[in-house]
């Protein structure tokens, strides 16, 4: 179980969640159910409304922004405009971020572009208000954002998005990785539950199934690279889909739901033999990742720092891994400032090499993958090592069926100690060290053994 959040000295939690998704994916229902579930646990729940809804319901109309625009064809996979408004909008003030983004991205859409920019500024300020309220709340606090900043990037050209970033001194690492603790994408019913896909009850939805699938992928792809990104597909009935969404949030927070939600998702890991050409991959994000193991307070605790980023912008995480009362490992993750990160580096454990990786994140078959490509300097055992990870409840042939076909996967190595990052980072040879972790999934606690002897340690997994 893992958790990454802000907290006070008293242990209060503030968790910032983005709930997003494709057309007819269950986002609205899921938000309501998630709110009720956490309120029943005694949490304070804030819901940040979709910013476009707030602004467009105030009297702004697409006709004010796009009156001089040339209508687009449906085959363009963009909004169809009629009389200056999206053809599918029954209510002329209806919210449709996709329509707005499409208008902003048109050649003469300067007014729409400016409104889109101001919409993002408003979204950031609205979210900041709720984030500050969360900090001042005396209870644990869940803040659910109805979509997030990166959603707007899905349907704007890269050139215009980059221009917006430069003009406002924004960058993707801050807006995507550091701003929110967790992203959950609810896959459109048009992708795997076509019989339930409907446009009848939505004033701003006329997408056919094929277009809805494309929109769903674009919406998810906008968040590729966030360190805690879950995709909830349609492999189960809708009730189970919503429960899986709630469960994945609870897992990240370390909340034990018992058998209330009955999901079996776990992390699986695979050894990859070689790195294909970039052209073989779908849309991906690459990150530079650096791990430092720290001196810990006792033999039953592991501590490490992670630096992760792109283009000179980084996020920093401190992880403490402890054994659970019932034999499960608990990872408590805390986001750090750059100054705190530098201060904690003084606690580095000299028994471990620093681990350097390139982390590649991508989506295949509605499944989110992270691939770690180990880099030098490091122990020779890490040279050329490539490990692929994902979270899934599938196994056997069904698990093989969702794996990327363009990768040469050698074998599954889930739980194998030779592929634990803790062990890979050890400076001493494994045959000589007392710190090698042999058992990663014991029922009670993992064992660290040396020279035929063993002592009880944490039940961890890399």
UniProtKB/TrEMBL annotation:
> Which Pfam family is one of this chain's hits?
AAA_28
Give start and end of each NadR/Ttd14 AAA domain.
16-240
Q: Which SUPFAM superfamilies match?
A: CYTH-like phosphatases
Alphabetical list of InterPro entries matching this protein: CYTH-like_dom_sf (IPR033469), NadR/Ttd14_AAA_dom (IPR038727), TRPL-trafficking_regulator (IPR053227)
- The name this protein goes by in its record: NadR/Ttd14 AAA domain-containing protein
